[in-house]
Design goal:
The protein is an all-alpha fold. The chain is built from two helices and no strands.
């Protein structure tokens, strides 16, 4: 009878210990799940920001390209005007 009582007491202590471990494991799993969701949210935000920056860069590249085309067009218009308006350097120095 005493052996049965001791066995029952040991079993109850073991059960209580396992329940405590299970509760701790569930708490850790919950914390890990929360951390994962937060990390996924951060990743999603960073990916959106990256996409926005890439789109902005593409827009700026297009704008630079257009400005360079306008600059080249202006240079081609100014080139003939300069040659007519300004005498050659050799003539300026001779005067």
């Amino acid at each position: 009878m005493e052996d049965l009582q001791s066995s029952l007491t040991a079993t109850l202590k073991s059960k209580q210990s396992l329940e405590t471990e299970l509760q701790e494991a569930q708490t850790q799993a919950s914390a890990a799940s929360k951390a994962r969701v937060e990390a996924e949210d951060k990743l999603s935000k960073v990916n959106r920001e990256k996409t926005d920056i890439e789109n902005e860069k593409e827009d700026l590249d297009d704008e630079i390209h257009e400005l360079m085309k306008r600059y080249q067009a202006l240079l081609s218009q100014v080139g003939p005007i300069r040659s007519v308006a300004a005498p050659p350097l050799c003539c300026v120095s001779c005067r």
